[in-house]
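User: Please fill in residues for this 886-position structure.
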């Protein structure tokens, strides 16, 4: 109210926006009144954003509560108005910074004169000689500060504005330096201003390298944002000399790193220890106790941790300038660390360090040695510091532990052999193949390998194979090959059975190597590899332990590289009986081979159908319950087929050949469609080659079939996301399960991939009438009725009935009349014109009339022109739909 009165007295026209007034042309007192009002508005908005501690309520009194509520509502209403005008207030204050003249503010004398002789004073105030003079620099200093606070408050939602805040605050500092801190009319909270400047320096680091060094805060913040955590430890270590960073800030950085480490970033574990070590050294230098966090992180010390701790201690104290108390604190800390260590090697690392020798006197070192002796009387500790920890002769248990650690880490077969020889020379009681629980070999091999009588040979074979299998799993094929080759060389000397096992594993490794390397670019495998795969499939060696996955991979390999001739004609008969994967591979290869032929010749397709139906069938058994009733129990995995359904699915997911995947997909889709209660069939390529019925429908687990179809489509699209027939299957699945938006997405994607994003016509075998009708139904159920009418034109015979019915719907969720440009059928456009006329919708009727009036839709045009017009509208409509649903 006070400021509004000041505006009125200062001749600010009521109802005029301050932003529309030119401050430079206004009388000085008028301009000053406008500035005061807008500065107050900005300060009020900023102040309202700060958290306020609510006073404790006293005994509830209705009259007081009503008064408080009224005051609260009044304040909120004022704030709402001010926030709406905030952008205008900021522009007014920005304009004020361009003024280069002094301003005047009313005093009691000028107000009294106004009350007595308003006419005279008005003229007098406009002459800029009345009132209290405010220098330009003082005005700009306060305005810059207020603008900086406003921009800083906006930065929480728009980080780019922090740059403006930084500029204003630093300008405020410059102006304070110019006018001096003793100015009568410019009072700025300089501590608060320093805080703002510091925060801006962190949030908006300057490109000027000198300004970045203003405070370590900004350096730490930049390092945390960029992930340069090693630099954080360096800054903290340097700060241990200056004590410039508050302890609370250092602890908050450590907490932030701990949270990130607990969220799964294991690489931060080491950084957490380093930062904690820096903070701990700072604490002991200032006489505080060691925190729990350091003790937890130092529970398992190692050479790297102790090296870093000693480095931080050395960098945190200047021995020439440090006080006796600082030196005493550091010495006590190092001594306590020694007493807390159990491994004497680590004790010697600390006691032989230059800092330790400098800080502790001879008597203190002797006392420490005596304490260590009492704790471990069998160890003869030397008082003289040892020059290097590596010179200390280690005990046998330490050596064994170190060698076992190297054994776990090494992937060099000759180094592994050397370590095992050393270990067996030190003890004959241990089984070193059990050192790591990560070393696993298939159970079919473990009996043969663990049956080796010589302990060293047994450990070596087991570890070489386990490490080789692990390297193969993580796709480190180079090391896997070296390990397998060494193992093969070793077992060839004494076990033909294990020799064949290693040859089989090396074959699988070579298959994986080719598939992950040159095979991905379509390069055929070398003939030698194909011959070895055939040799494995035809192998008839008795008592050789075989892994099922190798047979699986070999058959998948032959199918992926189209070795159909071998699988159909050259596979030995005994293999078809003994190996289910070979049987399945033969049927798939034969079906692919016969596919172009007449339907009568597709005998193998029927055989493949029967095999898959049997795999997907469930065996039923009767069980009498406690109440005497007989219930039917279905087994989820059939034992009637040549393999389990899960095994079939695992095998299919090793295939990449498009034709084979298409055949399997079409088979499962047909099997899915056979069930009696199916409402919406799924379409697929080559679906006609399969039988159309099953004698015993109840035996098939259709729920499992539906799950398998979904998994197979998902896998196939991961192999080739641009196969239009697979995309149509995925769309049909979503359509059948009432997920219409997702179905439209995949129908549109299928059209897009085979038409260069609809720049060419979509082939009619992709957008069949059935697909278009399903798209129409999707749009209808999504209440996009104008899209329905447009899609009705895509059918071979335009469905006017559906189109007209959809256009009659008034509750449409699509763009309605903006789609009229995509309609090329004049009959539908004429119906739209009639419909809008009937409803009195003049604007929409005009849009429809304009669409009819396009010359390219004239019925007298040649057929080619009409077709071109239709094609152009199809393209634009489908592209618009794609942008909507992709």
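Assistant: Residues filled in for all 886 positions:
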């Amino acid at each position: 109210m006070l400021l509004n009165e000041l505006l009125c007295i200062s001749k600010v026209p009521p109802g005029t926006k301050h932003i529309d007034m030119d401050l430079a042309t206004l009388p000085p007192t008028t301009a000053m009144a406008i500035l005061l009002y807008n500065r107050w508005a900005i300060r009020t908005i900023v102040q309202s954003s700060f958290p306020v501690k609510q006073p404790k309520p006293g005994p509830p009194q209705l009259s007081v509560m009503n008064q408080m509520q009224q005051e609260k509502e009044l304040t909120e209403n004022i704030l709402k108005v001010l926030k709406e005008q905030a952008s205008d207030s900021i522009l007014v204050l920005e304009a004020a910074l361009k003024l280069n003249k002094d301003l005047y503010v009313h005093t009691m004398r000028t107000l009294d004169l106004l009350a007595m002789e308003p006419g005279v004073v008005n003229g007098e105030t406009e002459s800029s000689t009345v009132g209290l003079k405010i220098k330009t620099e003082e005005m700009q200093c306060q305005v810059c500060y207020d603008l900086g606070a406003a921009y800083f408050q906006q930065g929480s939602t728009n980080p780019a504005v922090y740059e403006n805040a930084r500029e204003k605050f630093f300008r405020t500092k410059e102006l304070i330096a110019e006018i001096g801190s003793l100015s009568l009319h410019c009072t700025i909270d300089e501590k608060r201003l320093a805080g703002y400047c510091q925060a801006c320096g962190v949030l908006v680091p300057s490109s000027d390298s000198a300004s970045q060094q203003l405070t370590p805060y900004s350096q730490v913040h930049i390092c945390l944002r960029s992930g340069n955590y090693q630099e954080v430890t360096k800054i903290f270590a340097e700060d241990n000399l200056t004590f410039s960073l508050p302890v609370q800030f250092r602890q908050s950085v450590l907490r932030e790193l701990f949270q990130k480490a607990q969220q799964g970033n294991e690489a931060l574990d080491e950084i957490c220890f380093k930062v904690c070590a820096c903070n701990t050294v700072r604490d002991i230098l200032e006489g505080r106790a060691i925190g729990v966090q350091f003790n937890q992180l130092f529970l398992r010390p190692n050479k790297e941790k102790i090296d870093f701790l000693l480095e931080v201690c050395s960098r945190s104290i200047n021995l020439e300038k440090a006080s006796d108390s600082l030196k005493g604190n550091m010495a006590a800390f190092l001594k306590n660390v020694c007493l807390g260590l159990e491994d004497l090697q680590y004790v010697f690392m600390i006691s032989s360090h230059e800092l330790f020798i400098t800080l502790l006197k001879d008597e203190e070192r002797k006392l420490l040695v005596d304490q260590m002796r009492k704790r471990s009387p069998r160890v003869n500790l030397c008082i003289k510091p040892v020059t290097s920890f590596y010179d200390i002769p280690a005990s046998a248990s330490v050596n064994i532990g170190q060698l076992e650690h190297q054994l776990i880490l090494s992937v060099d077969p000759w180094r592994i052999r050397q370590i095992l020889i050393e270990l067996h020379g030190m003890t004959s009681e241990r089984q070193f193949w059990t050192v790591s629980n990560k070393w696993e070999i298939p159970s079919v091999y473990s009996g043969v390998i663990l049956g080796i009588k010589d302990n060293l040979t047994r450990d070596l074979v087991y570890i070489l194979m386990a490490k080789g299998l692990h390297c193969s799993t993580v796709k480190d094929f180079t090391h896997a090959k070296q390990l397998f080759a060494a193992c093969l060389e070793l077992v060839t000397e004494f076990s033909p059975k294990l020799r064949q096992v290693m040859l089989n594993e090396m074959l699988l490794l070579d298959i994986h190597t080719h598939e992950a390397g040159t095979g991905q670019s379509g390069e055929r495998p070398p003939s030698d590899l194909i011959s070895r795969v055939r040799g494995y499939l035809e192998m008839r060696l008795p008592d050789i332990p075989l892994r099922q996955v190798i047979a699986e991979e070999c058959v998948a390999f032959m199918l992926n590289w189209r070795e159909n001739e071998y699988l159909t004609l050259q596979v030995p008969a005994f293999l078809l009986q003994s190996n289910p994967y070979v049987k399945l591979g033969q049927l798939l290869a034969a079906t692919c081979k016969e596919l172009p032929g007449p339907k009568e010749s597709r005998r193998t397709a029927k055989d493949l159908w029967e095999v898959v139906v049997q795999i997907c069938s469930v065996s039923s058994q009767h069980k009498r319950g406690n109440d005497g009733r007989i219930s039917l129990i279905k087994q989820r995995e059939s034992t009637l087929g040549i393999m389990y359904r899960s095994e079939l699915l695992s095998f299919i997911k090793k295939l990449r050949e498009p034709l084979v995947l298409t055949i399997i997909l079409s088979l499962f889709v047909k099997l899915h469609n056979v069930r009696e209660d199916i409402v919406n069939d799924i379409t697929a390529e080559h679906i006609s080659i399969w039988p159309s019925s099953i004698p015993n429908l109840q035996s098939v687990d259709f729920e499992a079939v539906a799950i398998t179809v979904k998994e197979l489509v998902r896998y196939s699209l991961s192999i080739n996301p641009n196969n239009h027939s697979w995309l149509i299957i995925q769309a049909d699945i979503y359509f059948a399960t009432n997920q219409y938006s997702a179905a439209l997405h995949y129908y549109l994607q299928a059209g897009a991939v085979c038409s260069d994003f609809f720049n060419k016509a979509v082939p009619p075998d992709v957008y069949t009438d059935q697909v278009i009708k399903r798209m129409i139904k999707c749009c209808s159920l999504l209440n996009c009725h104008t899209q329905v009418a447009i899609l009705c034109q895509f059918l071979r015979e335009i469905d006017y009935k559906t189109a007209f019915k959809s256009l009659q719907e008034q509750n449409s969720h699509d763009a309605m009349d903006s789609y009229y440009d995509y309609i090329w059928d004049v009959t539908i456009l004429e119906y739209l014109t009639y419909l809008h006329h009937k409803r009195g919708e003049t604007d929409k009727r005009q849009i429809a009339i304009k669409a009819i009036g396009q010359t390219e839709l004239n019925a007298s045009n040649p057929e080619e022109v009409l077709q071109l017009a239709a094609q152009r509208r199809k393209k634009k409509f489908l592209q618009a739909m794609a942008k909507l649903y992709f």
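For context: Confidence is low (pLDDT under 50) at residues 120-128, 376-395, 630-636.
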